[in-house]
TrEMBL record:
PANTHER family: MANNOSE 6-PHOSPHATE RECEPTOR-LIKE PROTEIN 1, MANNOSE-6-PHOSPHATE RECEPTOR FAMILY MEMBER. This is Autophagy-related protein 27. Keywords: Membrane, Protein transport, Signal, Transmembrane, Transmembrane helix, Transport. Pfam families: ATG27 (PF09451). It is found in: Preautophagosomal structure membrane. It comes from Anopheles darlingi. InterPro entries: Autophagy-rel_prot_27, Man6P_isomerase_rcpt-bd_dom_sf. The keyword Membrane applies. Residues 1-19 form the signal peptide. The chain crosses the membrane at residues 183-207. It is a single-pass type I membrane protein. GO terms for biological process: protein transport. The lineage of its organism: Eukaryota, Metazoa, Ecdysozoa, Arthropoda, Hexapoda.
């Protein structure tokens, strides 16, 4: 009973924690709110297209691919001497002052952060930089990347804005339809209930059974705990038959 209460309390706490606006990450670039609504950015960049890019006033460039790791330098006439972006990136910055690249984000380090009254952000953090990409729902068919001018300075923190139709909320999981597991559990419950009702009716009406004898296959249900115990011991012994001392009444004991 205590375990059941603890499980119910934990489920309620989890639902409450998700109901506060947290978008739970369910993929490399997708997340889901408690009500089944969420965001999936996988269609932002088709397989044959290059990363989205934007340029700062001082010539720095940002290259963004939210759902696909890129292993090449964005511009053919530039080199990556330190190999930061050549090792794979989701978010890469070309620093105009040093004429080199800086890897700001990787796909497996993508995090979703939901801020009250400020929308949803993709965040990327490494040893030196913290970069966030604000997701803005746009009804245009294409996606565009912009740099927030007020956030850009000589520090290591940058804020980008992604305008995209794929940043709009959509149904990630439809709770109105039962899942496969739910359907199987319902079918199992109905089958067990029908089995007992039909068995009790047959035993009581046609065989004249009363009391416990009305339960169908009563001997099986009485022996079930022992069978489960024997099966558990069998598995615990590595699927080997447990050796037991012979009964004193058997031929081997004599």
């Amino acid at each position: 009973m205590l375990k059941l209460v603890a499980i119910l309390w934990f489920c309620g706490f989890l639902r409450f924690s998700l109901a506060d606006g947290t978008c739970r990450k369910v993929g490399d670039c997708s997340c889901e709110f408690y009500d089944g609504q969420g965001i999936d950015l996988s269609p932002v960049i088709p397989e044959t297209s290059q990363a989205l890019e934007t340029t700062s006033p001082n010539g720095d460039k940002f290259y963004f691919s939210p759902c696909k790791t890129i292993f090449y330098v964005p511009s053919e006439n530039q080199t990556d001497e330190l190999g930061r972006c050549n090792k794979g990136y989701t978010l890469c910055m070309y620093v105009n002052a040093s004429r080199n690249y800086s890897r700001l984000g990787e796909l497996d380090r993508t995090e979703f952060i939901s801020r009250e009254n400020d929308g949803l952000y993709l965040t990327y953090r490494n040893e030196k930089n913290f970069t966030q990409v604000k997701l803005v729902c746009a009804r245009d068919k294409s996606s565009f990347l912009y740099l927030e001018p007020t956030s850009y300075n000589k520090t290591q923190n940058h804020t980008l804005i992604l305008f995209s139709p794929w940043a709009c909320l959509k149904t990630i999981e439809d709770y109105s339809k039962p899942s496969t597991g739910t359907v199987l559990l319902i079918m199992l419950f109905i089958s067990m209930l029908s089995y007992f009702l039909v068995g009790v009716t047959v035993n009581a009406v046609y065989l004249g059974a009363r009391g416990m004898e009305m339960i169908p296959n009563l001997d099986f249900w009485r022996n079930l705990p022992g069978l489960v115990r024997d099966g558990a011991r069998f598995l615990q012994n590595g699927c080997r038959v447990e050796r037991r001392d012979p009964s004193p009444d058997t031929y081997d004991a004599i």
